[in-house]
Amino acid sequence: MNLPSKCKLIYQPKGRAGEYAKFACNIYRGCDHACTYCYGPGVTHKSRENFANSTTRAASFMETLTREAALCAEAGITEKILLCFTCDPYQRLDRNLGLTRRVIQILKSVGLNVQILTKGGGASLRDLDLLTPLDAYATTLTFTDTSHGRQLSSEWEPGAAWPAERMGALRAYHAAGIPTWVSLEPVIEPKESLALIEAVADCADHFKVGKLNYHPAAKGINWRGFAVAAIQRLEALGKSYYIKADLAKYLGRNEGYWGIEPRPAPVPLPPVPDSADGTEVRPCE
Prior knowledge:
Number of helices: 10
Largest sheet: 9 strands, mixed
Strand order of the largest sheet: 1-2-5-6-7-8-9-10-11
CATH class: Alpha Beta
Number of strands: 13
CATH topology: pyruvate-formate lyase- activating enzyme
């Protein structure tokens, strides 16, 4: 289903971004996480310094978004709206302004569902109460919660939450019954990304696996070897996964593909009445 033609803030991502979501909305201009691997500055034609000095969008943003959300609902849009691509919904700026919560409320008020993609960690827990099992929560994980991983994180993604904090937020959403997924992209050190699969297998419903792009370090990585190792680990754990097109080409594929597709959330079994006295006996979980 296509978006109504009048929608601009809610849009349909193209190219690599289209592998993550059919529809998206960017709440801020730029991102103060200042990740050195971020593609945002190039896409928005800004210097990294200007991009990291994030700002709000036009003063009419909320009013316009409210109109567009209503149009999407009237058009029968059922796909989740991703928040966000060219910014992080829970960057430090949002901790003061709280615009992300207002955006979620606007979208949910007309029956639209959302999926969050963030490196904001604990800051995202503020809005856990707004999401339902029809929504989704995701985090980007690049490095492990080890001394080596934390050192890399401080160098590559200085403004983002620590890896452990991101994993903690993922676990909290998963425990609340919200579908979860992990973006394993970019891959800076393959060993780190492979270790992350096992580190969060208990709380990630599925994984989207990519590579490192737009960086000279990518040329020194055996991408086929990484892809094969990642798939072996994911399948051994029985995890749903998607291999992005940039990585899939090293496996002889022309486009991204699902290895094990996401499974629908299980429906809880109803209580079973005891035939003798009518008391409820719940099946073992």
